[in-house]
Amino acid sequence: DRQTLVAVLQFLRRSNLRESEEILRREARLLGDDLGGGSVATVASSSPGVAAVAAVPPGKGGARAGAAGSLPGAGGRSLPAGPLGTWGALFGGGVVVEDQPDVSAVLSAYNQQGDPTLYEEYYSGLKHFIECSLDCHRAELSQLFYPLFVHMYLELVYNQHESEAKSFFERFHGDQECYYQDDLRVLSSLTKKEHMKGNETMLDFRTSKFVLRISRDSYQLLKRHLQEKQNNQIWNIVQEHLYIDIFDGMPRSKQQIDAMVGSLAGEAKREANKAKVFFGLLKEPEFDVPLDDEDEEGENEEGKPKKKKPKKDSAGSKSKKQDPNAPPQNRIPLPELKDSDKLDKVMNMKEAARRVRLGPECLPSICFYTFLNAYQGLTAVDITDDSSMIVGGFADSTVRVWSVTPKKLRSVKTAADLSLIDKESDDVLERIMDEKTASELKILYGHSGPVYGTSFSPDRNYLLSCSEDGTVRLWSLQTFTCLVGYKGHNYPVWDTQFSPYGYYFVSGGHDRVARLWATDHYQPLRIFAGHLADVTCTRFHPNSNYIATGSADRTVRLWDVLNGNCVRIFTGHKGPIHSLAFSPNGRFLATGATDGRVLLWDIGHGLMVGELKGHTDTIYALRFSRDGEILASGSMDNTVRLWDAVKAFEDLETDDFTTATGHINLPENSQDLLLGTYMTKSTPVIHLHFTRRNLLLAAGAYSSQ
């Protein structure tokens, strides 16, 4: 009886009675032949008759692979055409029966005792095969080297063949791509079974399937080779630990593959980037712009549209029509506009009317704020939207706020003094401020570890800071005191940012999770889990419905604030990601990492559309100009670079084929997009900000070495 057989085989495997299992399997194989493939057909519910087992033409097996959803080999893996027959034929029918239930517990997945002395032979055999295959397949199949190398090494270590593991590592680690060096360093320190239990990165590597994107032709070639060679050890690893995302069409070239790989878990599955994303902007609330008498034009009614117009021209971002790609206005609850916010918007529009239109012919001026003698160690910077205040987070756990304008920072008067004020007077907001407290700098004490992230609220009433001490603190900029300490992360918090509409904020940290908070809740509203390493930077989309997170697992994810789902996974960086910037129109995302590259992504199509090379060190700051014409990047190599964003995003090839297979064609040379490079004397750039009139502000701490 099939069910009993499955249960017994499972039990034998769990109890590690390999020999008995083999014997029974042989018996089952006879059984399989007697049944004439019936055992397989029962799994593939719609398999027509006997011959179907081995003769399902490619492309027709989609439904069947679905029917056998729990096959570790086929189910959960996108093998649209992997007819079950071929999987069965591989081990002679019986294996499909045996493997149908989910046998693989995480650690015991490494119990497959192949002959440890043959591992090097297996690997070098496959290596020889791939290196001798045609050029068009070689690039694709070479992606197998790294995940197979790691899993075979871990399998040897787990089964306590330490000397074999050591010689396997020494013989083949030099063949791996240069961007895996850091991972290999971690791997080389795992030499005993005990080491594996505590190492989170390796646990993740083992539990999450490494994703490879391979064309059907290359995949068939690999399968045929492994079948002929009876190389079960490697085939088992491919089935257990790799997710092969097969596409129809031309194999990808080495350049195309290199652009996309390099993250801890391989590439993103194509399915991961298919969900609809509302990347458009929300409609601005309408209210009249009162004209001041002191406006230099001094126009009357005709001036009104004029005032708004420049804002509208700019990438059409503030047009009155609803953007077809925008989320519904009430998709997530956003705070009501206060009167002060409306005033601020009016100011913003006036500033926008005087904004400089940037472009290759008209580059912005750059004003650099250098923190001198910052021996406390500057670790974070933010500048308010109206560029009136700048904040620094320091390694000595202080947060320091400066006024950048002649207007000094003042606190509100004490309660006793406030009770004496005439509440009805016109200048009540001025009167509540205590002149005696006026100063250019305020220091906020409260954290007990370095401050890694700071963010001003859009209305400039609050300031967020996050720290190594595991907390995010909310400070009042009226009283310069701490209002709340949010405790949700148990480990250092690397970044935090306010939503462009205020009220909500996001934080990300060493616990690999990003959290969404609201200022009036002690607990997080959403927890975004999925990264395989620290969440190093966080950013809100301009419409506040999405959050981007960059991680040390070398991927960028886009999360939906409404339901907490991950809607995009972008792979391609070769090092931890440290900066993110959305374009003002919400369509594109720029990301920067320790690999010195800026990558550009089309959010709607889920595709990489550009790569900007030029920096020689980690990129800590990225910012688009107010109209999105220019992208500024700031790096540890002490430079600010300006890139032509309009040109980078024009005439993109986002046809269906590219979207379906990820055959991206990046221009060979990004130098024609580079508009300028500006050196500092010896100051790494850690923050960039465009003022409302498109003056670029940069900030960093002077380093003497």
Highlighted features:
29 strands; Methylamine Dehydrogenase, Chain H; 23 helices; Serine Threonine Protein Phosphatase 5, Tetratricopeptide repeat; elongated; four-stranded antiparallel β-sheet; 29% helix; alpha+beta
Explain this structure to me?
By secondary structure, the chain is α+β, with helices and mostly antiparallel strands. Among the domains are: 114-252, TFIID subunit TAF5, NTD2 domain (Serine Threonine Protein Phosphatase 5, Tetratricopeptide repeat), CATH 1.25.40; 378-651 and 662-701, YVTN repeat-like/Quinoprotein amine dehydrogenase (Methylamine Dehydrogenase, Chain H). Helix content is 29%, strand content 24%. It has 23 helices and 29 strands. The strands form 8 sheets. A 4-stranded antiparallel sheet has the order 4-5-6-7, with no helix packed on it. Strands 8-9-10-11 form a 4-stranded antiparallel sheet, with no helix packed on it. Helix 1 (2-14) runs antiparallel to helix 2 (18-34) and helix 9 packs across helix 15. The longest helix is centred in the N-terminal third of the chain and has 17 residues, at 18-34. The radius of gyration is 29 Å and the shape is elongated. The chain starts with a helix and ends with a strand. Residues 289-341 are annotated as: Disordered. Residues 114-242 form the TFIID subunit TAF5 NTD2 domain.
